[in-house]
Amino acid sequence: MDSLKRLLVFSLLLAVVVIGALYTLKPDISRFKGLMVEPVCRKKLDSSMFKEVKLYQLKYPIGQLQVPQPLAMEPLRPDVLTLTPWLAPIVWEGTFNIEVINNMYQPLNITVAACIFAVGKYIRLLQQVLESAEKHFMVGYRVNYYIFTDQPDKCPQLALGSGRSIILLPFPSFNRWQEISLRRMEFIRKAIEDRIHHEAHYIFNIDSDTVFENHFGAEALGELVGSLHPWFYDFSRDRFTNERRPASRAYVPNTEGDFYYIGALYGGSVEAVYKLTKTIEVELNTDKQNDIEAAWQEESHLNRYFLQFKPTKVLSPEYVWDKLRGHPPERIRVVRLATIIKNNKELRPN
Ligand SMILES: CC(=O)N[C@H]1[C@@H](OP(=O)(O)OP(=O)(O)OC[C@H]2O[C@@H](n3ccc(=O)[nH]c3=O)[C@H](O)[C@@H]2O)O[C@H](CO)[C@H](O)[C@@H]1O
Ligand SMILES: [Mn+2]
């Protein structure tokens, strides 16, 4: 009798574990009731509705850490620019102490949203970017991967770290890659309205043709974050690939421009990115009505936006290196995220 009871309890426990495991591995596709282009509920968001990290919440734990003293007369990276003319830090290896940063941010239990679009054949790239993100992206923090896709059933099933989850969101199949790329602003805006505003504190847009190779953590968090494009960080402004036709809302004259930022990685507080996506969506629509498409789609508009609304933090090319450029120069000491070499002809719909 006793052994029967034990067997019964054991089988029950086993069933709970198996069902639990199946449940956690299975991405949430409940929101896929047909491909809805319109958000489920459209909210007008005001400042009070966002999750945010206030400066006074960041508290350094006195007496607990042994960290080197910062020396005002000894720059840590004299070989690169570490501050913009508007006094935003440019993040390079050697400029920050991750222990200090983690000790200030981790007690706040923040959630970071990563928006990744995987439409058409790009769905194949998801496994690699997600697996590598689990090893390097915001480790020790809560992370929500919002995967925008037209094929929810093909999303890889990964065992994620604790506090990390995948949320699938519908995105239509377009037959021009340019359309996919530039509609991202609208879809991020809608997802923020729909749910991200109450689910995350910070948000990043990350291209799916990328792979994380090294630490990419809380040092990258900021109110409004742009990343230097790995092809243009040492170019003069007149050679940036900004939109040069005044007829486009993305127009930047060649006598202006601070840096050339990449469209594959930007972020910030959810509220700041909401404002960014909302603004750029309007500019994109205006261009569309005027029958003009900026040279590099939403990246061109992003550059115009960042010229006007300067990022509060700038990520160095460590944060998006392009493998097509081969090994980075010495001053780029570490590659944290790299864009993969892909066959555009084979992957893109056009
Ligand atoms: C090195 C270079 O020249 N990079 C430019 C190129 O980026 P990329 O060559 O990196 O563009 P891309 O092909 O990665 O497209 C951008 C993103 O859109 C998504 N996607 C795109 C096509 C598709 O069929 N399915 C899909 O899911 C996916 O998340 C992808 O990462 O074009 C972009 C256009 O905005 C930017 O201007 C980039 O600076
Ligand atoms: Mn890309």
UniProtKB/TrEMBL annotation:
Localization, UniProt: Membrane
Organism domain of life: Eukaryota
Binding site for UDP-N-acetyl-alpha-D-galactosamine: F117, A118, V119, Y122, D207, S208, D209
Membrane topology summary: Single-pass type II membrane protein
This protein's UniProt keywords: Glycosyltransferase, Manganese, Membrane, Metal-binding, Signal-anchor, Transferase, Transmembrane, Transmembrane helix
Cross-referenced Gene3D superfamilies: Spore Coat Polysaccharide Biosynthesis Protein SpsA, Chain A (3.90.550.10)
GO molecular function, a single term: glycosyltransferase activity
Main location: membrane
Residues where Mn(2+) binds: D207, D209
UniProt: an alpha-L-fucosyl-(1->2)-beta-D-galactosyl derivative binding residues: H229, T241, E299, D322
Coiled-coil features, chain-numbered ranges: none
Active site: E299 (nucleophile)
Family matches, as PANTHER family: GLOBOSIDE ALPHA-1,3-N-ACETYLGALACTOSAMINYLTRANSFERASE 1, GLYCOSYLTRANSFERASE-RELATED
Protein name: Globoside alpha-1,3-N-acetylgalactosaminyltransferase 1
Organism, as annotated: Coilia grayii
Source organism phylogeny: Eukaryota, Metazoa, Chordata, Craniata, Vertebrata
